[in-house]
Amino acid sequence: MMDVDSGSRSRTSLTVPKDYGSSGAAPAGVSVTTADEAKPHHHVPPPPGCLPRRHFPVSVLFAACFLISYVDRSVLSIAIIPASKGLDYTGWHKGFILGAFYYGYVSTQIIAAMAAKRFGPYKVLAIMVFIWSLFTGFTALCFPSFPLLLASRVIVGLAEGFGHPCVMTLVSYWSPYSERSTLVSILFGFSFLGNVLAMLVTPFLIELLGWRWVFYLAGLLGVAWLAFWVAFGSDRPSNNRWVNKAEAEYIEANLTDPATLFNKAEPVDVNEQLSPDPDRSNKSLLLEGGRNPEKQRLLKRDNFEVEEDEIPNPTFWQGIKYLAPWKKIMTSSQIYAVFAANFATHTIGFILSNWMPSYLTEVHGASLEQLAYFTPLPYVAIFVMSLLVGVLADRMRSKGMHIRNVRKIMNAIGLIGPGLCTLGLALWPWFIGPLELEVAVAFLTAAFGFNAFVHAGFESNFMDLSPKFAGIIFSVSNTIGTTAGLFGVPLVGILVGESLRGYNFSFLGMTGVCFVATLINVTLGGPR
User: Fold this and answer.
1) pLDDT at 294
2) In terms of Cα–Cα distance, which of 507, 342, 341, 487 is closest to 423?
3) Secondary structure (3-state) at 483
4) Which residue has the higher pLDDT, 138 or 266?
5) Region 469-491: what's the mean pLDDT?
6) In the structure, what pLDDT confidence band is assigned to residue 32 with cuts at 50, 70 and 90?
7) Residue 406: is its pLDDT beyond 70?
8) How many CA atoms lie within 13 A of 397 on its CB side?
């Protein structure tokens, strides 16, 4: 085995083989990690002279996918204004048309993660991009029929529900931990750049070609992206022909932040690897799980060791059961902090994205031309800030700040800021006077800009908490977050249908959600 010098006891950790796990006893003051964890993550530098070619299949194509998905879901918020003329669509109708997307979106989050794990995110993402692009174009033909329009938006949501889990699974395979905050912030920044594109171009397309062409062209964007994805994409760096071997090895050796592998206050150097002891590890498993194969599989799953091909031809429920350590996930305080932050962020994003054009038109009298100038500004703000906060978070981490504190700070700014902005939108007309169009746009722009900080907070936290199950955790979290669109978007329509003051009550509700989520995140959040 190895001798541990008593004088350097506080600096030494033991490494055990993967199948030994954490079942063996370790001396006091010595941290134990598995052989997989002890791979020299931080000792593997980028290959010298290597051009990071992964930034095309990862940074560019992933970002473009997010951009297109947000274009496809966002064009409706402006196109519905001219498209619904003469159709007697009330605020109630508009609320359910805008919210129908989320009924489909929320239904496929966990299924998407299962499909990505079972069939590979590369194939699943390609199929779903084709489906949502097809039905985005089909939406243009459905407006005369309210039920058919709802159905088309639900299908777009069903397909787009696969997008984020697949991409986040791919990110966990492709992003070295030192680049993760930056990459995730870029991806979510480009999602809001999709909103910018939709809000900026849609009014001019309506004037030039008519509102139906907005949907046709949005669908064609997805088809164009698909051609590049088929040519350049892949599940992992090791099987991508555009990434050389040295770079693939660098990526896969640096997927996990060493700081998340140790529970001790002072993680220490790994000096030597213990030789495997199969008898001891087998005895350990037998003591815990007996000779029952299913119990042993569950033990291995909870130790993050179960392999996809270990269960031949699993049933649907077996696939769910062995997909992830559900008990550990659903009893983790950090996970619930992520859920709270996700729900608050989606509340701000979904409600404002869908109702902002109608709010500016109905309350402030904005014209279609003014919408083209004003509605992109909040998304420009969140796009620019997303690029900056990712770099800032990685810089804070490189300067020695613990990853838990980095995530908490980013989440706090990203939730309190929008909460204060929506509070201003709600109270200004009641206590100060009429709210001018420019001031309302300034509040909305600031709300989106502050919200960008969560992209270096909980949005990056999935890979910190569990790189292997990042897609699963993201899917559960996104399912919970999407309920904000499921119920919030139609609820605003109901409130506004009664009176335009319903917008003020909606802003107050968003403020409350943000403040409560901040409290939960500060007390429970961050990887340990």
Assistant:
1) 53
2) 507
3) helix
4) 138
5) 81
6) very low
7) yes
8) 26
Least confident of 260-274, 313-327, 472-486: 260-274
Q: Name the residue with tokens 């100060």.
A: 432
Q: Is the pTM of this model over 0.70?
A: no
- For the chain, give the number of residues: 528
Please give the biggest Cα pair distance in the chain.
Answer: 84
Retrieve residue 172's tokens.
Answer: 């966990």
Confidence of residue 463 (pLDDT cuts 50, 70, 90): low
Q: Which two tokens stand for residue 132?
A: 């949502």
Which residue in 163, 184, 143, 102 sits closest to 353, CA to CA?
102
CA distance 364 to 347: 22
| Alpha-carbon gap, residue 479 to 343, rounded angstroms | 9
- Residue 143 has phi, psi (to 5 degrees) of -60, -35
Backbone angles phi, psi at 39, to 5 degrees: -55, 140
500/181: higher pLDDT = 500
Q: What is the rounded CA–CA span in Å between residue 30 and residue 319?
A: 37
Can you give the pLDDT at residue 487?
85
Q: Would you state the structure tokens that stand for residue 273, as one six-digit string? A: 């690897």
Q: How far apart are CA 401 and CA 379, in angstroms?
A: 30
Lowest mean pLDDT among 27-41, 109-123, 198-212: 27-41
Q: Which residues of 56-68 are buried (b: 16+ CB within 10 A; e: fewer)?
A: ebbbebbbbbbbb
Please give the structure tokens belonging to residue 224: 């164009």
192-226 residues labelled b (16+ CB within 10 A) or e (exposed): bbbbbbbbbbbbebbeeeebbebbbbbbebbeebb
DSSP state of 456: G
Q: Is 340 exposed, middle or buried (0-12, 13-18, 19+ CB in 10 A)?
A: buried
How far is residue 276's CA from residue 279's CA, in Å, rounded to a whole number?
9
For residue 450 the two structure tokens come to 């502050």
DSSP 374-410: HTHHHHHHHHHHHHHHHHHHHHHHHTT--HHHHHHHH
**Residue spans of alpha helices (H) in 84-211:** 91-105, 109-119, 121-139, 146-160, 163-174, 180-209
